[in-house]
Amino acid sequence: MLAILLGATTVVFATGLSASLSQATAAFTRAGAVPVEVEMAETPSAPGLAETAAVRRIIQSRPGTARLVGARDIGIRTPGLSQSALLTGYDADASWTGFALVSGRWYAGPDEIVAGSRLLRSIGRAVGDTLTISGEQGTREVRIVGEAFDDTHDGLAIVGPIATLSGLTARTWPDRFEIALDQTTDPGAYLRTLAGALTGHPASAEPRRDQDTTVVLMLSLIATLTVLLVAVAALGVFTTVVLNTYERIHQFGVLKSIGTTPGQIRAVVVLSMIGIGLPAGILAVPVGYTLHRTIVALMADIAGTGIPASVLDVYSPAHLAALSTGGVLVAFLGALVPAGWAAHMHVATALRAE
Q: Which residues fall in a coiled-coil region (predicted)?
């Protein structure tokens, strides 16, 4: 029972942890919402504002462009933080760009910002507080209206409307564009045609990074550990069934002597373990679910960030119902080989065993 519970709990926990890490990667990269970016090259010979407007028109005219927003990043200082933070200003609605909110809401005015979770923890601020930010040309006060699950600039990042840059820097127009595509548009083909259209302009189109090497390695490690732990659990079941079969060998001999087929003997052995595996699998669901939420919360706390619902709430009722059969699967795999031995044991050998 304990071996099956361990294996089934491992499956529930590992499935949830893998899903949480995948959701965290999606939230960090935002590649699902913004598959393509265009970066402007700052050149002394080209009027930045005019070139930016020209590039915007080119992007807007491309078939497949669903949404477009310009952005500029600048370094800022804020009280309580020894290093610089990154302020990103968007020149239009950017609520669709894939930022996952831990709490609060998206900004709605020039003096409202959404701050990275790690930044807020570093400076001891929360949603609803005001914050003074300083740039190369001055300072301004903004109100924190949202907390984002964001690892940009090591999580020391702020997002707001591009008007927030006024008074902080001389250049308050976009130097890059974030692009969403129609569902039927192939990103690779879109990038090739856009790159051709941008020839002669100080701009380059690039796909947004959609994977994190560290997360990929962690997912591989989780998968490996899951397989190993399930294998250990199955071996525990295997040992239990071997001992159980040895104790009941005379009973199997009697059953075979009265005409019980090998298939029926095999079914008796397997079903006896499945009867244990079913309650173990059902019990593993709340245990694995609780373990998952505890470990993910601990990981987030160590990383100094909050957790959005999309990263934590990864189990659906149907998903949990399916995972409850994990105990049955582990029991079945562990009992299969010993059941075969019992099924093909000679009657005389079995009857003499006692």
A: none
Both tokens assigned to 269: 């052995």
The residue among 216, 187, 233 whose CA lies nearest residue 335 is 233
Q: Where are the domains positioned within the chain?
A: 2-26+212-352, 32-207
CA nearest 350: which of 274, 237, 262, 272?
Answer: 262
Do 97 and 179 contact (CB within 8 A), yes or no? no
Residues 92, 162: Cα–Cα separation, whole Å: 8
pLDDT tens track for 243-282: 766 666 666 666 667 777 777 877 877 787 788 888 888 9
Element (H, E) at 72: strand 65-76
Token pair in block for residue 37 = 């970016």
Report domain 32-207's class. mainly beta
Task: Reduce the DSSP state of residue 169 to 3 states and report it.
Answer: coil
pTM of the model: 0.81
